[in-house]
Amino acid sequence: LFPPVESSSIGRIIGGEECVPHSEPWQAALYYFDKFICGGILINETWILTAAHCKMSNIQICLGDHNRMVHEGTEQWRHAVKMCIHPSFNSITYDNDIMLLKMNSPVVINDYVKLITLPTEPVADNTICNISGWGSTISPGEMYTDVLMCLNVTTVPASDCQGFYENDSITDNMLCAGNLEGGEDSC
Protein backbone atom coordinates (compact mmCIF):
# COMPACT_ATOMS: atom_id res chain seq x y z
CA LEU A 1 0.00 0.00 0.00
CA PHE A 2 2.87 2.38 0.57
CA PRO A 3 4.59 4.18 -2.27
CA PRO A 4 8.04 3.06 -3.38
CA VAL A 5 10.96 4.89 -1.80
CA GLU A 6 13.96 6.19 -3.65
CA SER A 7 16.84 3.74 -3.76
CA SER A 8 18.81 5.80 -1.22
CA SER A 9 18.10 4.92 1.71
CA ILE A 10 -2.86 -5.82 15.09
CA GLY A 11 0.48 -4.98 13.61
CA ARG A 12 4.19 -5.55 13.80
CA ILE A 13 7.23 -3.72 12.55
CA ILE A 14 10.18 -6.05 13.05
CA GLY A 15 13.75 -4.87 12.45
CA GLY A 16 12.90 -1.21 11.92
CA GLU A 17 14.44 1.91 13.39
CA GLU A 18 12.90 4.99 14.92
CA CYS A 19 11.66 7.27 12.15
CA VAL A 20 13.05 10.76 11.90
CA PRO A 21 10.38 12.65 13.91
CA HIS A 22 7.49 13.76 11.67
CA SER A 23 9.07 12.28 8.52
CA GLU A 24 5.87 10.25 7.90
CA PRO A 25 3.23 13.02 8.23
CA TRP A 26 0.46 10.85 6.72
CA GLN A 27 0.79 8.24 9.49
CA ALA A 28 -2.27 7.92 11.73
CA ALA A 29 -2.60 6.16 15.08
CA LEU A 30 -5.99 4.57 15.76
CA TYR A 31 -7.26 4.13 19.30
CA TYR A 32 -10.18 2.39 20.95
CA PHE A 33 -10.71 4.76 23.87
CA ASP A 34 -7.12 5.07 25.17
CA LYS A 35 -5.81 1.77 23.74
CA PHE A 36 -3.69 1.88 20.57
CA ILE A 37 -5.15 -0.61 18.08
CA CYS A 38 -3.80 0.07 14.58
CA GLY A 39 -2.12 2.43 12.19
CA GLY A 40 -3.48 4.05 9.08
CA ILE A 41 -2.61 6.61 6.44
CA LEU A 42 -4.17 9.94 5.52
CA ILE A 43 -5.39 9.81 1.91
CA ASN A 44 -7.29 13.10 1.95
CA GLU A 45 -8.35 15.66 4.53
CA THR A 46 -11.23 13.52 5.84
CA TRP A 47 -10.36 9.87 5.08
CA ILE A 48 -7.94 7.35 6.60
CA LEU A 49 -6.95 4.10 4.87
CA THR A 50 -6.38 1.21 7.29
CA ALA A 51 -6.97 -2.52 7.68
CA ALA A 52 -10.48 -3.94 7.97
CA HIS A 53 -9.45 -6.11 10.92
CA CYS A 54 -9.02 -2.84 12.87
CA LYS A 55 -12.79 -2.27 12.94
CA MET A 56 -13.96 -1.21 16.39
CA SER A 57 -16.65 1.13 17.61
CA ASN A 58 -15.58 4.59 18.80
CA ILE A 59 -12.26 4.77 16.92
CA GLN A 60 -10.24 7.86 17.80
CA ILE A 61 -7.65 9.01 15.25
CA CYS A 62 -4.43 10.88 15.98
CA LEU A 63 -2.33 12.47 13.23
CA GLY A 64 0.87 14.50 13.55
CA ASP A 65 2.26 12.29 16.30
CA HIS A 66 5.70 10.73 16.74
CA ASN A 67 5.91 9.60 20.37
CA ARG A 68 2.50 8.33 21.43
CA MET A 69 3.33 8.83 25.12
CA VAL A 70 4.37 12.49 24.84
CA HIS A 71 2.15 15.47 24.01
CA GLU A 72 4.18 17.18 21.30
CA GLY A 73 1.72 19.92 20.37
CA THR A 74 1.62 18.72 16.76
CA GLU A 75 -1.19 16.19 17.13
CA GLN A 76 -4.62 16.52 15.57
CA TRP A 77 -7.36 14.32 17.04
CA ARG A 78 -10.50 13.24 15.21
CA HIS A 79 -13.00 10.44 15.58
CA ALA A 80 -14.33 8.07 12.95
CA VAL A 81 -17.91 8.74 11.94
CA LYS A 82 -18.12 6.23 9.09
CA MET A 83 -16.38 2.94 8.32
CA CYS A 84 -16.29 1.49 4.81
CA ILE A 85 -15.02 -2.09 4.87
CA HIS A 86 -14.22 -3.87 1.63
CA PRO A 87 -17.37 -5.88 0.82
CA SER A 88 -15.32 -9.05 0.26
CA PHE A 89 -13.22 -8.79 3.45
CA ASN A 90 -12.66 -12.24 4.95
CA SER A 91 -11.82 -12.07 8.66
CA ILE A 92 -10.43 -15.63 8.64
CA THR A 93 -8.06 -15.37 5.66
CA TYR A 94 -7.62 -11.56 5.81
CA ASP A 95 -8.33 -11.36 2.09
CA ASN A 96 -9.36 -7.79 1.14
CA ASP A 97 -8.26 -6.55 4.58
CA ILE A 98 -8.85 -2.89 3.83
CA MET A 99 -11.09 -0.21 5.29
CA LEU A 100 -11.70 3.51 4.93
CA LEU A 101 -12.48 5.68 7.96
CA LYS A 102 -14.24 9.01 7.54
CA MET A 103 -13.25 11.53 10.19
CA ASN A 104 -15.71 13.88 11.88
CA SER A 105 -13.94 16.95 10.45
CA PRO A 106 -11.11 17.64 8.00
CA VAL A 107 -7.57 17.81 9.32
CA VAL A 108 -5.41 20.88 8.82
CA ILE A 109 -2.57 20.14 6.40
CA ASN A 110 0.73 21.45 7.78
CA ASP A 111 4.35 20.35 8.33
CA TYR A 112 3.20 17.54 10.67
CA VAL A 113 0.06 16.32 8.87
CA LYS A 114 0.17 15.70 5.12
CA LEU A 115 -1.55 13.48 2.57
CA ILE A 116 0.22 10.39 1.31
CA THR A 117 0.79 9.99 -2.42
CA LEU A 118 -0.48 6.55 -3.35
CA PRO A 119 0.90 4.64 -6.34
CA THR A 120 -1.17 4.86 -9.51
CA GLU A 121 -0.16 1.40 -10.73
CA PRO A 122 0.38 -1.96 -9.01
CA VAL A 123 3.68 -2.15 -7.15
CA ALA A 124 6.11 -4.40 -9.04
CA ASP A 125 7.97 -7.29 -7.44
CA ASN A 126 11.37 -6.38 -5.96
CA THR A 127 10.33 -2.76 -5.31
CA ILE A 128 11.70 -1.11 -2.18
CA CYS A 129 8.83 0.29 -0.09
CA ASN A 130 8.77 2.26 3.14
CA ILE A 131 6.63 1.02 6.02
CA SER A 132 6.00 2.75 9.32
CA GLY A 133 4.02 2.17 12.48
CA TRP A 134 3.88 1.80 16.23
CA GLY A 135 3.42 -1.98 16.11
CA SER A 136 5.14 -4.70 18.08
CA THR A 137 8.88 -4.90 17.54
CA ILE A 138 9.15 -8.61 18.40
CA SER A 139 7.58 -11.81 17.10
CA PRO A 140 6.30 -13.98 18.54
CA GLY A 141 4.95 -11.90 21.39
CA GLU A 142 4.11 -8.24 21.80
CA MET A 143 6.31 -5.29 22.70
CA TYR A 144 4.76 -2.15 21.27
CA THR A 145 6.85 0.92 20.65
CA ASP A 146 6.01 4.43 21.81
CA VAL A 147 7.82 6.09 18.89
CA LEU A 148 7.04 5.73 15.22
CA MET A 149 9.24 3.08 13.60
CA CYS A 150 10.32 2.95 9.94
CA LEU A 151 11.64 0.18 7.75
CA ASN A 152 12.37 -0.30 4.06
CA VAL A 153 11.18 -3.65 2.73
CA THR A 154 11.25 -5.25 -0.70
CA THR A 155 8.12 -6.58 -2.36
CA VAL A 156 8.26 -10.32 -2.93
CA PRO A 157 6.48 -12.35 -5.63
CA ALA A 158 3.37 -13.97 -4.18
CA SER A 159 4.62 -17.38 -5.30
CA ASP A 160 7.77 -16.97 -3.16
CA CYS A 161 5.76 -15.71 -0.22
CA GLN A 162 3.16 -18.49 -0.39
CA GLY A 163 5.61 -21.07 0.91
CA PHE A 164 5.72 -19.30 4.27
CA TYR A 165 1.96 -19.49 4.82
CA GLU A 166 -0.40 -22.44 5.10
CA ASN A 167 -3.61 -23.13 3.20
CA ASP A 168 -2.93 -20.89 0.19
CA SER A 169 -3.47 -17.81 2.35
CA ILE A 170 -1.72 -15.37 -0.02
CA THR A 171 -4.23 -14.10 -2.58
CA ASP A 172 -4.04 -11.80 -5.59
CA ASN A 173 -5.44 -9.04 -3.35
CA MET A 174 -2.39 -9.05 -1.06
CA LEU A 175 1.04 -7.49 -1.27
CA CYS A 176 3.90 -9.51 0.16
CA ALA A 177 6.99 -7.63 1.34
CA GLY A 178 9.82 -8.21 3.76
CA ASN A 179 12.95 -10.29 4.05
CA LEU A 180 12.43 -13.98 3.31
CA GLU A 181 15.39 -14.78 5.57
CA GLY A 182 13.60 -13.12 8.50
CA GLY A 183 14.43 -10.28 10.84
CA GLU A 184 12.56 -7.56 8.94
CA ASP A 185 8.82 -7.53 8.52
CA SER A 186 5.53 -5.76 9.00
CA CYS A 187 1.97 -7.03 9.29
UniProtKB/TrEMBL annotation:
The keyword Secreted applies. InterPro entries: Peptidase_S1_PA, Peptidase_S1_PA_chymotrypsin, Peptidase_S1A, Serine_Proteases_S1, Trypsin_dom, TRYPSIN_HIS. It comes from the Eukaryota. GO terms for cellular component: extracellular space. GO terms for molecular function: serine-type endopeptidase activity. Residues 13-187 form the Peptidase S1 domain. Pfam families: Trypsin. It is found in: Secreted. The keyword Protease applies. PANTHER family: RIKEN CDNA 2210010C04 GENE, TRYPSIN-RELATED. This is Peptidase S1 domain-containing protein.
